[in-house]
Write a structure and sequence with these properties.
Layout lengths: L1 E10 L2 E11 L4 E5 L6 H8 L7 E6 L2 E2 L5 H7 L1 E3 L12 H12 L4 H6 L2 H20 L15 H13 L5 E5 L7 H16 L3 E5 L3 H7 L2 E6 L2 E6 L1 H6 L1 H7 L7 H7 L2
Parallel strand pairs: 3-8, 3-9, 6-7, 7-8
Antiparallel strand pairs: 1-2, 1-4, 4-5, 9-10
The structure holds adenosine-5'-triphosphate.
Length: about 260
């Protein structure tokens, strides 16, 4: 579905990514791990059009994404969440999700101004969809609450519902469990599994090894801007190159992380 082909990125003289090639197959939960500063978020920023690659190709279902502005990439079917939660804290949950739905549906200006029947039906459909998406992440009961009142874990799930509101084929999650307690992680794991079963392809960056290894079919490992392996979780965990990449760093190394989770 999503392909990166020998993608490189330089910021001035700094080589952040070098010849990164990977493929996220349709229907999968795919993981990207690597020590701090390896270039993971840069990969997401390139896919979503926030920055342009220095060289290489990025395609979604065979069509190039390079050079498209972020909103066009959203329209092609890619949505994302960010490391730092981006929601409208002073708005209700349903309003937060509706913002995403409204961006997705094109209302005619006349429909909006004169509240034509077509517009009203679309608006009703949008609300129903927003409630449905909140239900998927276990938040529909709190639909009219103000987002600021949610716990941290709930805010992260709200952000996912909001991303889904643009009806993506591919959902990018940047460190979805950062800062969550174990109960919140379990709830999120269930929500992500349920979303994937509904047909959404998921590509996540995650430092929590138990989480990423428990969810992903395949995991790519980035180290100093290069992919050192892409394999099944068991193989990644046992790969000496991966262990070496994490040695002497503060990160949660795959081996230690997996053992800690048992
Ligand atoms: N816009 C930018 N300008 C200059 N350097 C940048 C820019 N964005 C990222 N970098 C540099 O690129 C490198 C990779 O950063 P990136 O955020 O992609 O890493 P990461 O693997 O996501 O790290 P972390 O796990 O800490 O989030 C870092 O050295 C960072 O300072």
């Amino acid at each position: 579905m999503l392909r990166l082909d020998t993608v490189s990125k330089r910021f001035g003289g700094l080589k952040v990514l070098e010849d990164v090639s990977l493929e996220v197959p349709e229907g999968e939960i795919f993981g990207l791990i690597g020590p701090n500063g390896a270039g993971k978020t840069t990969v997401f920023n390139l896919i979503t059009g926030l920055i342009a690659p220095t060289s290489g190709a990025i395609t979604l279902d065979g069509t190039s994404l390079v050079g498209l502005p972020p909103h066009k990439i959203t329209r092609r079917g890619i949505a994302r969440t960010f490391q730092n939660i981006r929601i409208f804290k002073e708005m209700s949950l349903i309003e937060n999700v509706l913002v995403g739905v409204h961006r997705h549906i094109r209302y005619g200006a006349a429909g909006l101004l004169f509240s034509l029947p077509g517009y009203r039906a679309a608006e009703r459909g949008a609300r129903e969809r927003a409630h449905e998406l909140l239900g998927w992440v276990g938040l529909d009961a709190k639909a009219s609450e103000i987002a600021d009142n949610l716990s941290y874990g709930e805010q992260r799930r709200l952000e996912i519902a909001r991303a889904l509101a643009t009806e993506p084929k591919l959902l990018l999650l940047d460190e979805p469990v950062a800062g969550m307690n174990p109960a919140e992680k379990t709830e999120l794991m269930e929500a992500i599994t349920a979303i994937n079963r509904r047909g959404f392809t998921i590509f996540m960056i995650e430092h929590d090894m138990r989480f990423v290894m428990g969810l992903c079919r395949r995991i790519a490992v980035l180290n100093f801007g290069s992919i050192i392996t892409c394999d099944r979780p068991e193989a990644v965990r046992a790969d000496p190159r991966v262990i070496e990449a994490y040695l002497g760093r503060d990160d949660d190394a795959p081996v230690r992380g997996a053992e800690a989770g048992r």
